[in-house]
Structures are given as structure tokens and as C-alpha cells.
Write a sequence for this structure.
């Protein structure tokens, strides 16, 4: 059973690495990315963030005090910290920390 689990983890890690390395292998050297793919690369991150915000805030209607206010404040922290430092990683960490602190206090 343990060998099966380790094999499954190894296979999934290899597939994940391969999918991450594929664009670099395909578009290396003299070959450049097509225009539609560059445009997709500029539009998709914002779209994904919008979907994640909607997903995170979907439970607010049932518990406005317990999760709604902390969620709204955490979203504001993420937006403001991103506008301030332009660091996605820092924004996610600050938003998560703010949310965790606020749900413990409320």
C-alpha cells in the first residue's frame, strides 16, 4: 500500500513538472509565443483571481458577521497590499493572516 501511494505521488509530481516545463521547451530558442497566447497570459491571472474572490465570498450570505466581515476585510487587505507592493505572494500571506486573525476575534 505504501509503495502504491509513493508511486502515485511520483507519477503526479512528474506530470506536474512536465506540464510546467512544457512551455519553456516548446517556446525556447528562436520560436516565440503566438500573440493570442501572450494576450491570454495577460488576461488569465486577473480572471482567475476574480473567480477565486467569488468562490471565497460565496458563503458570506449565510453568516455575515462570522465570515462576511472578516472576508471583506481580508479582500481589502489583499487589494491594498498588492497595490502597495505589487507582490502576489505578500498579498496572499497578508490576506490569509488578516482573515485568520479576524475569524478568531469575531
Amino acid at each position: 500500500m505504501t509503495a502504491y501511494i509513493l508511486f502515485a505521488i511520483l507519477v503526479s509530481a512528474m506530470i506536474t513538472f512536465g506540464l510546467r516545463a512544457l512551455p519553456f521547451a516548446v517556446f525556447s530558442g528562436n520560436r516565440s509565443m503566438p500573440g493570442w497566447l501572450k494576450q491570454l497570459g495577460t488576461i488569465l491571472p486577473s480572471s482567475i483571481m476574480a473567480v477565486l474572490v467569488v468562490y471565497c465570498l460565496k458563503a458570506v450570505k449565510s453568516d455575515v458577521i462570522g465570515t462576511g466581515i472578516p472576508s471583506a476585510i481580508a479582500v481589502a487587505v489583499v487589494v491594498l497590499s498588492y497595490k502597495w507592493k505589487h507582490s502576489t505572494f505578500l498579498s496572499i500571506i497578508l490576506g490569509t493572516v488578516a482573515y485568520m486573525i479576524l475569524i478568531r476575534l469575531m
